[in-house]
Structure formats: structure tokens, C-alpha cells
Amino acid sequence: MQARQVAAPGRYGLALATRLLQRARLAEPTEGLWEAADVNWWWRRPRRSDDVGHLVWLDADGDPVGAVLQTDWGREWQVDPVTVGADADLETEVWEAAVTVAREHADSAVWVREDNSDAMAELAERGFVAAPGDTTMWMAAAERRPPSAPPEGYRVLDRTSVLDRPHHLIARNGVDVERRLQETPLYDPTLDLFVVDADDEVAGYPLFWLDPVTGVGLVEPVRTEEAHQGRGLADHLVRSGLERMAARGATRMKVSWENPVAGRVYARAGFLPESTSVVMRPSGPPSRAPGVAAAGES
């Protein structure tokens, strides 16, 4: 396959990554790790990787067929090789580029499905070390469990009804969070839920993402504040959001978790385990000094 490699910073990179992951999901019902909604959620705050952008391979029609997605989490640089409809040569080229990028950072991570033994073995041979990742669960929208009434004294709202108050994600994601979410192709404020107590204080929140191209609804993130835990709020919030996504056309739903407590909430809502992942991190020093531009940076 003849493909042209481009560096895609900023919102251009976000748009290409969104399209590539949509194409990958349409090609395979549950394979891979990420949804287009994942990269939309990751856009919620400014990152060094915004300027670096993604490495993207485009076919003759200008459609993305491969990418090395780069996301700066502060503590480490996440590197995700993704291909769809690519031949063996292009798959090799994308993976080689991903390994190069990962090696260029003092702290980097390549997420791999645990059932992808070939990729794990290849990275291990190159000195990458595995650590536990997360568990991914799926369910058909028709199999979702109905929500119960919210616990007494709590009200569930969405962002469209309270635009005059600061966004509930600011404390953990910075003052730019609402503007950044609105820049993404998939953000829907009616799926941006939160729950308030009798004093109108935020007690928790979930954010749901419906991809109209793939029909997949993603749950990301969900939080109940510590003082309000153990009252069934997470159960109610998750199931309420699933109802909203189903009403807007979601046919399948997905969630990933690292905390077993969260996993039990999702299982009660009807999700079933599909796959687990590992995080592969390179051992040894980076192949470049800190501050030197990463591959694809212009």
C-alpha cells in the first residue's frame, strides 16, 4: 500500500485520529484498544503532545490508514500504533515508528492487548517490560440494565441545564476543560452528567460519548466524590447515562477499568469482560536528550 506520512499536530491530528479509530472500529467489532471517543476525551486539557501531534499515514484518497498516536500524560508519553486495512509493510512501518518514538522519551508507554502475543513478544525482545493495564467490557445496548431512582437527596443534571456554573471537571482537569471538550468532534453536553446533593454541591459525575459513525457508546470517566461513596450513586449515574446513549442511537457500549470496584459497577449495569491489556515500557535510557523534538515534530 502506498501511503503518505504526515505530521498532524493540534486539532488536525485530533480529526485524523478520530477518523482512523472510527474506521478501525467499523472494520472490527471489538478488536483494538481505543475508540475515537478516547482521543476526544484525552483532548480535554492542553498537552505538550498537541504541538508534536500524531504521525499519520494517508492513502491516495487522503483517508488515514495508520498512525502513531502520541499523548503526553505528564508522568509519561503514551504511544499507540494503529492501522486499518494496511498491508504487512505498512503495519511494520507504523510499529517501527512507534518503537522509535517510545524510545525517544525517558518515560513512555505502549498499550497492547494481552491476547496480542506477537506484539508483546516483539516489544519484549526490544527491551520493553510489561505491567498490568486494564480490563475492557462490552455489551449490546439492548442488554443494559434499567436505572433505579437516584438516592434520596440527589439530583442528576447535564451540562446543558447549568451553563452559568463552573464546569464540574475543572478541579481535576483545569480551567480550559469545557472549551477543549467543545473542540472535539464527539462531545455532547447532554451526555455530560453530574449529580448534586441537597446543598447543590457536586457529588459525582460521569461523561458519556456516543460515536454516531460506529454506534459505540463509551463510558469515560466516572467518579463519585469520597464523601458520597457507598450510596449507589455510581450505579445510578452509569445506568442513567447508558439510557441516554441508547436513546440517541447507541447500539453497543464499552467501558474500561483498572479499579475492581468500578468493574463491579459496570458488571451490574450489564457489561461483560472482553479483553485485558498490558502496558509495555522501554527499559534503559531514552535515545535522545530531554527537550529534543520527538519524531513527527515540526
Rg measurement, Å: 20 Å
Strand content: 25-35%
Strands, count:
12
CATH superfamily of the domain at 139-276: Gcn5-related N-acetyltransferase (GNAT)
Characterization of the model:
The chain has 298 residues and is an alpha+beta fold. Helices cover 31% and strands 30% of the residues. The chain has a domain at 139-276: Aminopeptidase.
What can be said about this structure in brief?
With 298 residues, this protein is of the alpha+beta class. It has 9 helices and 12 strands.
What key attributes describe this structure?
alpha+beta; Aminopeptidase; 31% helix
Topology, pairings included?
Layout: E1 4-8, H1 10-27, H2 36-42, H3 48-52, E2 54-58, E3 64-72, E4 77-83, H4 88-103, E5 108-113, H5 117-125, E6 128-140, E7 155-158, H6 170-173, H7 177-183, E8 193-196, E9 202-210, E10 216-224, H8 233-247, E11 252-257, H9 260-269, E12 272-282
Parallel strand pairs: 4-5, 10-11
Antiparallel strand pairs: 1-2, 2-3, 3-4, 5-12, 6-11, 6-12, 7-8, 8-9, 9-10
Helix pairs in contact: 1-2, 8-9
